[in-house]
Protein 1
Amino acid sequence: AQSVTQLGSHVSVSEGALVLLRCNYSSSVPPYLFWYVQYPNQGLQLLLKYTSAATLVKGINGFEAEFKKSETSFHLTKPSAHMSDAAEYFCAVSGETSYDKVIFGPGTSLSVIP
Amino acid sequence: DSGVTQTPKHLITATGQRVTLRCSPRSGDLSVYWYQQSLDQGLQFLIQYYNGEERAKGNILERFSAQQFPDLHSELNLSSLELGDSALYFCASSGSYRGQETQYFGPGTRLLVL
């Protein structure tokens, strides 16, 4: 069985500050891990995914995430927050193949303060 | 614009009714995925089709069914609708681009059951 937890349903950062969104997963098989973003009143967008290659994954819009097996974590970071980063972020895990039977976390709403 | 289209954008119907949601994937993408986003359940994977065949099933109710047609568009049929089926329904498609499999989402269909 797989599950995802995201610490903090809401995170606020100042513009220009580091963004850190936390994700921990539970999986009985080697996981595929994803971060998705949902901008206000829009659909989802895939930010990045981990598929057992490099542990540090670079995504779009300056985001990256690091897979740490020992900590069962896949935290999302961005060095400098921009106002346009305000959105809902979802971490997700999948078991067998890419995008197959994805389990989503509850989401973290990111606010960026000018 | 992700290249994935969904119709209709909004749908209001009554309990007990049946509706059909339509999705057209990005040109060349063979896989189509359906997801449900509701306040109660969060984001859930429903079902995946690949080139006309069902590939994976998630938390899809028996009252729901889907299919993918030879032109690769997909339809999600929801029947005997209940108030709890009110949600945002997303479709996504995936394909290989420069050796990487990438997923793109449509804007969603917002269903309100009264």
Protein 2
Amino acid sequence: GDSVTQKQGQVTLSEDDFLFINCTYSTTTYPTLFWYVQYPGQGPQLLLKVTTANNKGISRGFEATYDKGTTSFHLQKASVQESDSAVYFCALALTSGGNYKPTFGKGTSLVVHP
Amino acid sequence: DTTVKQNPRYKLARVGKPVNLICSQTMNHDTMYWYQKKPNQAPKLLLFYYDKILNREADTFEKFQSSRPNNSFCSLYIGSAGLEYSAMYLCASSSGSGTGQLYFGEGSKLTVL
């Protein structure tokens, strides 16, 4: 079945460090891939969406791309800030009978120290 | 206004007792979802409503019920809570004609004792 694997459970960085979080996916169709961010006490919210392989999604200094050849997609940021501390989820959106059924990774908890 | 509200935010239930969680959205979205989130696990899709049509995942089919009395509201009902139901329950909505983006509520944390 369709699945998403997000192996990095926690990433700890210092301010101005480079961030890279990776997910892999498995599907037989052409997916739309998302990154969601969840701040403490809030629900997840959309950070980035990538609909086409090798295209880049950009938002709030974050970039996301996906590689159809390696079935991976990643999130990166050149210089993280303490305010970026949050949980980041990758997600795969497929349609089933005309409805989207998003499948999520388990999340990567980013801790940024000042 | 992109708002999804969930009530209650925290729920304590006894084993064997029923639990009802409520979700509302003001965006006139046609699809509403319920996910279960446990620590160190991915959010697990339990069910979703597309308009008035309920779709339940095969492995949770008999454990959870839901109703959607109107477009704005959706409930998640557990008839007899077990310890394994302790989790965060996330409600989300989306527009079927949109981009697949989900709008989430803040979650309802259920603790079963």
